[in-house]
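Standup notes
- DV: blocked on the single-chain target, sequence here:
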Amino acid sequence: MLRLAGASLAGTAIEFYDFFVYGTAAALVLGPLFFPTFSPVAGTLAAFATFGVGFVARPLGSVLFGHIGDRRGRRPVLVASLLLTGASTVAVGCVPTYGSIGVAAPLLLLVLRFLQGLGLGGEWGGAVLLTVEHAPAHRRALWSSFPQVGPALGFLLANGVVLGLSAGLSEEQFAAWGWRVPFWAAGVLAVAGLWLRSSLAESPRFLEIDDHARVPLVEVVRDHWRLLLLTAGALSVGYAIFYAVSTWSLAYGTERLGVSRTVMLTCVMGAVVVKGALTPVMALLGDRYGRRPMCLAGCAAAALWMLPMVALLATGRPLPMFLGLTGALIAFITMFAVIAAYLPELYEPRVRCTGAAVGYNLGGVLGGALTPIVATALAGQGGRVPWGVGVYLTGIALLSLGCFALLPETRPVAAVTPAAEPATG
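- DV (later): unblocked, structure below
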């Protein structure tokens, strides 16, 4: 389990590095480089629009790779998704700017960002299911939390590289070529990830299935449509919080508040470190007390914290900003530490890869794709404190709270009595 969980963690870290490095670049440099005819705010909005395309592609990727995962196995998904995401990320670092090729530059960004999202849409389902379906039932949330630590590591790696380049290069050097280096580094990471995953065994639960779904998506939509909609709505708050913290806050702090890029990156990275460290702790609580109670608690905390978060962020001072962002990510990980166990348990094994991945990535469209765009637009209205952003995030938290309230608990009996056999729904 340690080797399997470690390989899944490394793979998700690499793939989310690819995804996050684009978000950081969109917040800091892509606007003026690829949309120079726009105003600063409009350029940032346009850059975030290309960022959002990746989220639109993720459900499509989950359908494509979910079909492979339910028909051919979880392991092939891990290799194919990593190759696609890594290659498209390296290509982003090679795209000429608007000044060199005109409108073709942002169009190429859109295409490559779409391919990034397509690959990431398959990654989560494959990595999580391979871990979940190997894990003992009474520690399923704990072991499945390893892939959930991957996004935090990927974010820290992406932002650490950008922070190092930002500190070591002048503004002109960073804008000219420095921002490309993190994208090129994705190629090395992809090769390392493929090596780690080459020896993983197929999921035992998949090998036990005698009658594989012919078209998994059709079965999911026909038999589990209500579950699919509820999980998408429930997960939207997690995406909204994470990308408000990791992407929108960078643009808001540097552009509106005049905080240095280094200070903003350090505050966000510090909050992500706390989130990553708490992930296994929250997962253990999920094995002890159940998945649904943790999700409800996280949603309630998010609804209460969003307005204080934007007020602390608006101070422009490092410590209050760090506290505001950290509180938001603690609410986030209270939910998302157990999601990797919760979603697969909601679906029967024959359509589990498709159902869990599509529900997870639809939540990304609702919460992740729109949040940086909407938050940037709302922050441009009114005074220094972006209360509209806080109200928007609170509304999403309440929506997700209602969806989680309608979902059943799935913690298997084996979580209390290890000899018992878990049920699947």
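- Follow-up: The chain has 16 helices and no strands.
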